[in-house]
């Protein structure tokens, strides 16, 4: 029978079968999907074939988001499959989300053609200065064509984000402690999952959510309840190692760098040292943000060093 993977615990999977029942399923040790090396061959959002509580097949994915667990790791991890969009939860402070993290995540969304929105959370905690920083960041990413919103998940009404999430499958991701699970609970108006405090000593999250899980939003239609969107809450991640980018293609995943690069003297310009580089020029004039360029360099550096290659 066919089903949808709605929770992954590492050793087993909860599958929502086509008949509406849930089944706890496993995969055989030698189960692999051709072409993708990852620590989890099956991810939340996968459509699978189940026989006697064994997952025997995974349908071809429309898309997925994948990352290296650490920069040095050869193992990659699929965050979720078959999604309509990523909502990256970002906090300017408590904890600090780095622009490198944001840009590496966005570059991966570009590479796998998944639309991304940025949700800036915890605005109630920000100082004047941090609010100004927030405004700058929003202006930057909006100028690149990314949708951004700012909010406080602790005071969010379930309907506040409806226009963004209705009818779609959305992957919630971000660093630990940014408020993914708090946001999820707010969207449902009740406690669907556990949230955790930020550590006093380090102002960082404590990895409260340990498994990815898909939740189903519903709406009232007359007397009937109808499904109206799917949200996948995931464990917080630290670094975001991008995978398998060729040096030449890294710029394709930075919209403004790709755009400016059309005017470089050399068509294979890496925008690092070449004469007549239009990207370098735009950095000097301030038309390309230095933070973006630094993120570009950090990925380029990984690709050049071949760190990620097997
Ligand atoms: N002041 C304030 N606190 C918030 C807000 N959103 C979340 N928090 C708090 O931040 C802490 C961490 O929230 P979680 O929802 O557990 O964070 P998470 O992103 O799910 O973290 P992991 O599961 O570890 O990845 C909790 O104490 C929340 O109450 C907000 O908008 N304002
Ligand atoms: Mg969580
Ligand atoms: Zn160039």
Describe how the helices and strands are arranged:
Blueprint: E1 2-8, E2 13-17, E3 22-25, E4 47-51, E5 54-58, E6 64-68, E7 76-81, E8 85-90, H1 99-111, E9 116-120, H2 128-143, E10 147-150, H3 162-165, E11 169-173, H4 180-188, E12 212-221, E13 224-233, H5 255-261, H6 278-284, H7 290-305
The structure holds guanosine-5'-triphosphate, magnesium ion and zinc ion.
Terminal Cα span: 36 Å
Taken from the alpha-carbon principal axes, the silhouette is globular
**Fraction of residues in helices?**
10-25%
Got a strand count?
13
- Helical stretch count? 7
Going by CATH, the homologous superfamily of the largest domain would be: P-loop containing nucleotide triphosphate hydrolases
The major β-sheet equals: 11 strands, mixed
Question: Tags for this entry?
Answer:
310 residues; alpha/beta; OB fold (Dihydrolipoamide Acetyltransferase, E2P); Rossmann fold; Ribonucleotide Reductase Protein R1, domain 1; 3 domains; two-stranded antiparallel ribbon; 13 strands; 25% strand; binds guanosine-5'-triphosphate; binds magnesium ion; binds zinc ion
Can you describe this structure in just a few lines?
This protein is of the alpha/beta class.
Could you characterize the architecture of this molecule?
Strands 1, 2, 3, 4, 5, 8, 9, 10, 11, 12 and 13 form an eleven-stranded mixed β-sheet that branches. The chain has a two-stranded antiparallel sheet with strand order 6-7. 23% of the residues lie in helices and 25% in strands. It has helices spanning 99-111, 128-143, 162-165, 180-188, 255-261, 278-284, 290-305; strands spanning 2-8, 13-17, 22-25, 47-51, 54-58, 64-68, 76-81, 85-90, 116-120, 147-150, 169-173, 212-221, 224-233. The protein has three domains: 2-60, Beta Barrel (OB fold (Dihydrolipoamide Acetyltransferase, E2P)), CATH 2.40.50; 65-233, P-loop containing nucleotide triphosphate hydrolases (Rossmann fold, 3-Layer(aba) Sandwich), CATH 3.40.50.300; 247-305, Probable gtpase engc, domain 3 (Ribonucleotide Reductase Protein R1, domain 1). Strand 8 (85-90), helix 1 (99-111) and strand 9 form a beta-alpha-beta unit. With 310 residues, the protein is an alpha/beta fold. Bound molecules: guanosine-5'-triphosphate, magnesium ion and zinc ion (ZN).
